[in-house]
Amino acid sequence: MSNNKPVFGAFNQGLTPTIACFNRAVTPLGVNLDALITAMQAYVDKHVAPVWGTPAKLTKTTGFMPNTWAMVFLDNADAPGALAYHDLTPDGLPLSKVFVKTTIDNGDLVSVSASHELVEMLVDPAINLMTTGPDLKATYAYESADPVEALSFNVNGIPMSDFIYPSYFEIFRKANSVPFDHLKKVSKPFQILSGGYQIVFKNGKWSQIFASEKKKKQFKREDRRGHRSETRASGKLQRTSAKEVARFDRPQARAARA
C-alpha cells in the first residue's frame, strides 16, 4: 500500500548537531579519516558556520549513534547495504553519504566530496529548501555547493569544497556588491561557474541548469543514485532500516573494512 504522507524533519532545532562520521568503504579514501574529520571540523568552525550560522560537532564513530546526524563513507550505490536511497539515520535525522569509489572514478577527491555533502547537509538538512530566482516560473534548490562544485581550498592542508553564501540567493544584490561564495569567484546572484550546476523545479519536474556543455555531459555520465538531486526528484526522505544497519555489522562486512 502506498504511503504518501510527507516526512517532516525538525532535527533537534536549537541544538548544535553532532555528526557521527564512519567508514563503510573498502576503497581507500586517499586521506587519513582522522585528519579528514579534523579538517572538516575546522571547515565548519572557521568558514561555514560564521556565514550560515550552522555549527556542528563531528566525531569519528564505528556506526550510527542515537540522536546524532551521520556521514557515512560507502564505495558506491551498488555496494551491499549502501544506503543508496536512504537520506535519514535510523533515528530520522540527516544522513550524508560519500560514495568513495564513485568519487575517485570521477577523478575527484574524497575530501572535497565529503565537505561538499557536509555543507549542503548543514544548510538544508531536510533537502526541501527552495527560493525564487531569475526565472520567475521556476524555483531554485538551496544547494550550497553545487554552483561552485569544481572549486576547493585547503583547510589543514586538505582540500575542502568551495560553497556559496546566503547572498547568492538574493536576486536584488548587484554584481560584485558583496561576496557570493567563499572563494569570491562568483560575481552575482545565481551565477553558475563552469564546473557547477543548479537544481531547479519547473513545469512540474526537477532538472539541472549547467554553465558549460562539458559539465552537462559529465553530469549525465555520473552515477547520481543516492545523491541529493535524486532525493529532490523523488520528493521523499526515507529512514535507514534496522535490517540495513545490521547488515553493516556482519563479521564479513567488518573484515572487509579492516
Describe the structure.
The structure is a single chain. The chain has seven helices and ten strands. With 258 residues, the protein is an alpha/beta fold. The model is unreliable at 251-258 (pLDDT under 50). The radius of gyration is 18 Å and the shape is globular. The strands form three sheets. Strands 2-1-3-4 form a four-stranded parallel beta sheet. Strands 5-6-9-10 form a four-stranded antiparallel beta sheet. It has a two-stranded antiparallel sheet with strand order 7-8. The protein has helices at 33-52, 100-105, 110-123, 213-221, 228-234, 242-248, 251-257, and strands at residues 18-23, 57-60, 69-74, 95-99, 130-131, 139-141, 152-155, 158-161, 197-202, 205-210. It has one domain. It starts with 17 loop residues before the first strand and ends with a helix.
Concise summary:
The protein has 258 residues and is an alpha/beta fold. The protein has one domain (18-257).
Shape: globular
Helix-residue proportion: 25-40%
Give the low-pLDDT segments. Answer: 251-258
Could you say how many structural domains there are in total? Answer: 1
The total of beta strands comes to: 10
Sheet having the most strands: 4 strands, parallel
> How many separate helices?
7
- Please state the structural category: alpha/beta
Radius of gyration: 18 Å
Q: Return the string of H and E elements.
A: EHEEEHHEEEEEEHHHH
Span between termini: 41 Å
Please indicate the percent range of residues in DSSP E strands (runs of 2 or more). 15-25%
In round numbers, the mean pLDDT is 87
Strand order, main sheet: write it out. 2-1-3-4
